[in-house]
Amino acid sequence: MELDENSLQKFGYIRRETSGSINIDPLQTGGMLTEAARRALVEWGDGYSVCDFCPGTVDIIKKPPINEFVHKALPSFLGIDEVRVTTGAREAKFAIMNSFRNKGDTVLLDGLAHYSSHLAAQRAGLLIEKVPSSASPEYTIDPEDYGHCIEKIIQKTGKPPVLALLTYPDGNYGNIPDASKIASVCHEYDVPLILNGAYSVGRMPVDAGKIGADFIVGSGHKSMASAGPIGILGASEEYADIVFRKSPTHKKKEIEMLGCTARGVSIMTMLASFPAVVKRIREWNREVENARWFSEQLGNMGIRQMGEIPHNHDLMFFEAPILYEISQNAKGGRYFLYKELKARKIHGIKPGLTKNFKLSTYGVGREKLSSVVDAFDEIIKKHD
């Protein structure tokens, strides 16, 4: 097929339709670039520009100072011994699981684990068992259930799981489990714990060492103001040599990292945003206050937040029977809410969702959140 001028016109510079909108999308609020990162995006956008002075792997590049960032700044920030930057949180989880896999071994996941945690385990060939969550509306994880599930796995297979994973917080309800207690329970059985902090690392204070996690995973494009895809993988000294083992044929290359992982724009935007990310987590209490205030305002309209209340995270899941009822007769049907919000320059709730939806208040600020609250109020009154 020949590409003529007409077929090429749909490509080139494409402006985002949502530019200038108030963004409450849980996948985007924590990953919005700082001004420094936007400058880095242009400066380092030419192919593998960071590889100009690469001595063998990205993490040891000294100019730009990726080596200091990966081997000093990030370990200090995360409270862990060794860190690598990966191409995403899911790739980090897979690297850990693949390093521990043996035929017939099991990994224990929390019942609210992200689908990519399941896929990482499946790709590594591990069997999966799940710690159940409580029923609606809380959907919480009981730390003691990790012990109960480990006991069941031992009874079933004759040995404990090779790894356990906790999603902190989960990506649906934004619940923050007692990670320290869960780590303690897992260590009673000598089971290493992976802390999946895709929605926490970079938004809120997280110290893997204080928690007792053996591994910590983060997402740059979800929570560290970075252009993605990019993630981080931290490992304690006890397990670092297992996950970051070197190739026997290419001495500088780490097998699970496939030699090099995130490079170019993604790592340079993470590096550029890092000073702002370190500072912003100091304001976490204000973010929690804003989330709780927002939840209360929507609750007054009959839009009910699910999960922990009072809430401890910016990511929230709502059930909105009043909006669903309106959608049964409104012009546009179940798309009416998306269109009404779009008309008010508010972005983040997926098209077609009215009965329930999730959103994030991270970094939006009380003034803009007030505008979102007013918009919901207007929409309900308009269709009442």
UniProtKB/TrEMBL annotation:
Annotated residues for binding of pyridoxal 5'-phosphate: 89-90, 196, 219-221
UniProt record similarity statement: Belongs to the SepCysS family.
Gene3D superfamilies: Aspartate Aminotransferase, domain 1 (3.90.1150.10), Type I PLP-dependent aspartate aminotransferase-like (Major domain) (3.40.640.10)
GO BP: translation
NCBIfam families given in the database record: PRK09331.1, SepCysS
Record's keyword terms, sorted: Protein biosynthesis, Pyridoxal phosphate, Transferase
Job of this protein: Converts O-phospho-L-seryl-tRNA(Cys) (Sep-tRNA(Cys)) to L-cysteinyl-tRNA(Cys) (Cys-tRNA(Cys)).
Xref: InterPro entries: PyrdxlP-dep_Trfase, PyrdxlP-dep_Trfase_major, PyrdxlP-dep_Trfase_small, Sep_Cys-tRNA_synth_arc, SepSecS/SepCysS
Catalytic activity entry: O-phospho-L-seryl-tRNA(Cys) + hydrogen sulfide + H(+) = L-cysteinyl-tRNA(Cys) + phosphate
Top-level taxon of origin: Archaea
Quaternary state and interactors: Homodimer. Interacts with SepRS.
Class of the enzyme per the UniProt entry, highest EC level: transferase
Residue numbers of N6-(pyridoxal phosphate)lysine PTMs: 222
Cofactors: pyridoxal 5'-phosphate
Annotated GO MF terms: Sep-tRNA:Cys-tRNA synthase activity
Protein name: O-phospho-L-seryl-tRNA:Cys-tRNA synthase
Pfam family, one: SepSecS
Signal peptide (residue range): none
EC numbers for this chain: 2.5.1.73
Protein source organism: Methanosalsum zhilinae (strain DSM 4017 / NBRC 107636 / OCM 62 / WeN5) (Methanohalophilus zhilinae)
